[in-house]
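Fold it.
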Amino acid sequence: MNVKELNPDTSPQAAYGAKLRSLREARGWTQDELGERMGYSGTHVSAVETGRKLPTLRFSRSADRALGTEGTAEAFERQWREIRQGSLLEGFPEFVGYEGRASEIRLYEVGVVPGLLQTPEYTSVIAESALKRGAITPEQADERVRVTAERQAALRRTRPPLIFVVLDESCLRRPIGSPAIMEAQLARLLEFAELPNTVVQVAPFDMGERRPFSLPVTLLTMADRAVMSYAESAQQGHLERESTLVLPILTAYHQLQAEAPSQATSVAMISQLRKGTP
């Protein structure tokens, strides 16, 4: 029998197939035998192993149950999510996992409204722009819109996190999409500010050198009070857990909040912009 050689370094999908084959062969099972344990045909297992068919969430969970990898670092479900989120920056899926469990979230954004506060239409315009530039595929554009919606849904839990947001004034004044889309986005910010677990502030242009950050930053406080920061470059996202590096960022964020106008003043500014008042 000719066995197709697999190079797990060529793509996440190839790595998935190579690991599936390796664990199956380690147990001495044929593709048919593994398929029977998973509820799939041997042909289907073969197609996933050789990269001819993309794995699904159901397939991955079945593989985890059959091979005993459920809930482990080697879980196929975890690897499937990495494949599915291939359009996202390296490091971002890991960050999203922590974000969905954080008890406190602190955001500072420049230029665009952060994803957690975006309307679907605003998110779609940004994704479509990247698509038109040829930076991503249609599938990846859809993925970005879906992930943003999932992130927002994950925060509407029984005990939602405290969310502190400081927006650079450029987030409000940079037009994204049509005037109607921007009007709806500003309305969304006003609704967000009314929630009992949120604080929204605007860092105006005239803060000048008193603004401690020049780039976006996110800080997550977990249930055990551990704090981590997340930042992105053009190529990847970086999640920092080392307290000696994170605590100075947290201190700077508190300074930013102290320097920025109050939520009441910030909300009034957003309302004026929404109405078209200078």
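Residues 18 and 66 are 16 Å apart (CA to CA).
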